[in-house]
Automatic annotation (TrEMBL):
Belongs to the LOG family. The keyword DNA-binding does not apply. Keywords: Cytokinin biosynthesis, Hydrolase. This is Cytokinin riboside 5'-monophosphate phosphoribohydrolase. It is an enzyme of class 3 (hydrolase). Its EC number is 3.2.2.n1. Pfam families: Lysine_decarbox. InterPro entries: LOG, LOG_fam. It comes from Ruminococcus intestinalis. The lineage of its organism: Bacteria, Bacillati, Bacillota, Clostridia, Eubacteriales. It comes from the Bacteria. SUPFAM superfamilies: MCP/YpsA-like.
Length: 196
């Protein structure tokens, strides 16, 4: 399985986010799964990468060409894919992934999360999306989405398209126990209540 990990490139974050990302990378590698990520060497991205390489796991980095000049790329990727644009970069990661884990991050991570969520809502993929809510980082975002539902801007069904994991163990349980939804002309129908 190829697990796409989205997360921060910032180094100005609390240690808990770095430590849990590195642990996640190690755990993915130890499962025999590969990580697809944004090829960075800093922040949550870099920590995940270091975790994978520490266990000699498969690490696929995807970055736009202009990242080459900024000295931000991790130099131990098993495979490094270059794209022309950020948009193309996301497309490569989305297409090659079997599952998505959303770690703590900023505007780029928010964009990546909402893109894979929107594509899933539109039935363009049926892959698990797990929000790794370390230290309650995403509580406010989840509440904002619930407000959007309560005020009629978004269907309650959208909240069932991703799961929220508070621990590393829950991340893998949610990926391993994932059940796809089926869609029809009236919206989407649950095949199983995998998202609680």
């Amino acid at each position: 399985m190829k697990i796409c990990v989205f997360g921060a490139s910032s180094e100005q974050i609390e240690k808990i986010y770095i430590d849990t990302a590195e642990s996640l990378g190690r755990a993915i590698a130890n499962r025999g799964d590969a990580v697809i990520y944004g090829a960075g060497k800093y922040g949550v991205m870099g920590a995940t990468a270091r975790g994978v390489t520490s266990e000699k796991g498969e690490l696929i980095g995807v970055a736009p060409e202009f990242f080459k000049k900024d000295n931000v790329l991790y130099d131990k990727c098993t495979e490094l894919v270059f794209t022309d644009t950020m948009r193309e970069r996301k497309g490569v990661m989305e297409d090659r992934a079997d599952a998505f884990v959303i770690c703590a991050g900023g505007i780029g991570t928010f964009e990546e999360f909402f893109e894979v969520l929107t594509l899933k809502q539109l039935s363009q993929h049926r892959k698990p999306i797990v929000m790794y809510n370390v230290n309650g980082y995403y509580d406010s975002l989840i509440n904002m989405m619930k407000k959007s539902v309560s005020e009629g801007f978004m269907s309650d069904d959208c909240l069932k398209l991703f799961t929220v994991a508070n621990t590393e163990q829950e991340v893998f349980e949610q990926i391993d126990n994932y059940k796809e939804y089926t869609y029809d002309k009236y919206g989407f129908l649950r095949d199983g209540d995998n998202n609680g």
